[in-house]
Design goal:
Blueprint lengths: L1 E8 L9 E9 L4 E8 L8 H7 L3 H4 L5 H12 L3 E4 L2 H14 L8 E3 H8 L8 H8 L9 H21 L14 H6 L5 E6 L5 E7 L2 H10 L4 H9 L2 E6 L3 H15 L14 E7 L5 E7 L8 E3 L2 H15 L16 H4 L13 H12 L9 E6 L5 E8 L2 E9 L7 H6 L1 E3 L4 H13 L4 E4 L6
Parallel strand pairs: 1-4, 4-5
Antiparallel strand pairs: 1-2, 2-3, 6-7, 6-8, 9-10, 9-11, 12-13, 12-16, 13-14, 14-15
Helix pairs in contact: 5-7, 11-16
Length: 453
């Protein structure tokens, strides 16, 4: 009925980390029925800080089985059982990722004893395994080793089962969902965007996840807020679009929310960016900044919902970088700007400061808004093994995304350009792309020096 699992790993991110140990304790809801525990050769170096935490060294795992050698055993032990763990998404994500590398889609229902502890045993100072076990009198031997933590989680789980029964709660029975079991089972454990519909076929929520199936299960079991319960009760159908790339999922989610304006995405659905910050060089060589209405002729550095929002942003740049009010089109009086009068402007508006000196500060002020290069393609993972996703930036503006076969040469600009599905650019999109580039060290970027598109 339950497989209580703990893993030790080489790091904190399943995408890059590997398993070094796994413990599986089978439980029927009353007693332990079987136990499995083994070290795993991660086929990579174990960082020193991880060894200090777990005590697992490279020498200890050198002759241990590799994951593929125990994969079948794990499938057999967990088949038809609920995956139980303390902070379940951590352990589950690592096991799923190991199977993903083998080309197998490992999918189990999960129970997190952290979340259950907060629901059934409220009021404790902390729900970390060490602290909650100490408060409940559960002794942990071999802390930060898989079997020690799994045994402690088992004892905690038995307390939670008992408390659940005392409260006449149904947290441990098979949950019923608004959607048919066949529909729930068909949801892929893949990266992408998902859509919830009400009984009239209206989209009420759009989300993205690296594991659509698990995220949907989380929605279905979320009873912590009135909004979550209300939305859950209105869900009548679901659809999804696999993206392969997390970046594409983020971009598609943002675009779809702004286009469809789902009721339960209220905080994310604003889409009207009417004003932008623009830069241009005047006849004397000074860079001018201004807030203008957006049209199709110029590309803004960033966008704003309202004109005053943009004006306030520009005033902050003026103050922070000692820019000229007149050259920022915030002072239309004749002569020098007001800040020059109070010695807060260096005199660009009166010709005292050179354009070279002034433009240096202007460029510093807008640098955070710019991509490192104005024309480039981002090559990321596709929906299938033989596919790449492609994201296009042209003249500093997001154009859209598409997919291309790995059989094609990815630096063929015509092929890359032809696969792009066009989408709108806005400030949210730029934040998403720049943040993803900064986080992803191994992301492939193809710069285009002379942009023909």
């Amino acid at each position: 009925m339950y497989a209580i699992i703990d893993v030790e790993t080489t790091g904190t991110a399943a995408t890059y980390g590997k398993l070094t140990e796994i413990a599986i304790i089978l439980h029927d809801g009353i007693n332990t029925t079987d136990t499995f525990n083994t070290l795993i050769n991660p086929e990579c170096n174990i960082p020193y800080n991880i060894t200090r935490l777990t005590g697992i060294t490279n020498e200890m795992v050198a002759n241990a089985p590799k994951f593929y050698e125990i994969a079948k055993k794990i499938i057999e032990l967990t088949a038809g059982r609920i995956f139980v763990a303390h902070n379940a998404m951590f352990d589950y994500s690592f096991v799923k990722e190991e199977f993903k590398r083998l080309g197998y889609d490992f999918k189990r229902k999960t129970i997190c004893t952290v979340k259950l502890g907060r629901k059934l045993l409220p009021g404790y100072r902390s729900y970390s395994l060490g602290n909650i076990c100490a408060d409940l009198g559960i002794q942990i031997t071999d802390r930060h080793r898989a079997i020690g933590d799994a045994l402690a989680t088992t004892k905690l789980f038995e307390i939670l089962i008992h408390q659940n029964n005392l409260l006449n709660s149904s947290l441990f029975v098979n949950q019923t969902y608004p959607l048919p079991k066949e529909k729930m089972d068909s949801i892929p454990s893949k990266t992408g965007v998902y859509y919830f519909y009400d009984s009239s076929g209206t989209i009420i929520y759009i989300g993205k996840s690296k594991d659509i199936h698990q995220r949907v299960l989380t929605h279905m079991s979320n009873t912590q807020t009135k909004k979550a319960l209300e939305m859950r009760d209105k869900i009548a159908d679901i659809s999804w679009e696999e993206t392969g790339s997390e970046l594409v999922a983020l971009l598609l989610e943002s675009a779809e929310i702004k286009f469809n304006k789902p009721f339960y995405n209220r905080s994310q659905r604003r889409s009207v960016y009417n004003y932008g910050l623009f830069a241009s060089e005047d006849s004397d060589g000074y860079i001018n900044l201004r807030i203008n209405k957006i049209d199709d002729n110029e590309i803004p550095l960033t966008t704003f919902h309202f004109q005053q929002e943009g004006v306030d942003y520009l005033h902050n740049l003026v103050q922070k970088y000692a820019l000229c009010l007149k050259l920022c089109h915030l002072d239309n009086n004749p002569g020098g700007c007001f800040n020059a009068f109070v010695h807060k402007c260096h005199g660009a508006c009166t010709g005292i400061e050179t354009s070279e000196s002034y433009n240096l500060r202007v460029n510093n002020s807008i640098r955070p808004l710019l991509y490192r290069t104005p024309n480039f393609f981002i090559i990321d993972s596709g929906r299938m093994k033989d596919e790449h996703s492609v994201i296009k930036i042209s003249n500093g503006r997001y154009v859209g995304f598409g997919y291309i076969s790995k059989d094609y040469v990815t630096d063929d600009l015509d092929l890359l350009n032809d696969c792009i599905r066009k989408y709108n650019d806005n400030r949210d999109i730029r934040t998403i792309i720049k943040g993803y580039i900064n986080r992803s060290k191994n992301l492939r970027i193809i710069e285009v020096k002379d942009n023909p598109f």
